[in-house]
Amino acid sequence: MQSWLQTALQPSIVRRALACAVVVGAILIAINHGRAILDGELSRERILQMTLTLVVPYLVSTYSSVSAVRLGGRKPSAS
Fold first, then answer.
1. Per-residue pLDDT tens for 47-59?
2. What is the tally of structural domains in the chain?
3. Domain range for residue 47?
4. How far apart are CA 17 and CA 12, in angstroms?
């Protein structure tokens, strides 16, 4: 677990995950909450939902990057 976290906290992985979270999260927020934002309907619940909308792509990108780094040069096994 410690090795996984050390890899996840590498600056290149954090930068990639943040970029993914900003781009993908902004698109999803616009799709899912755009009308409410324009209408000024920003409740605590909606802000929490929007925050989670940013966190999920960050976590997915981090998981994917760490998995790729940990696989390293290994070739996928033939199935």
1. 999 999 999 999 9
2. 1
3. 15-65
4. 9
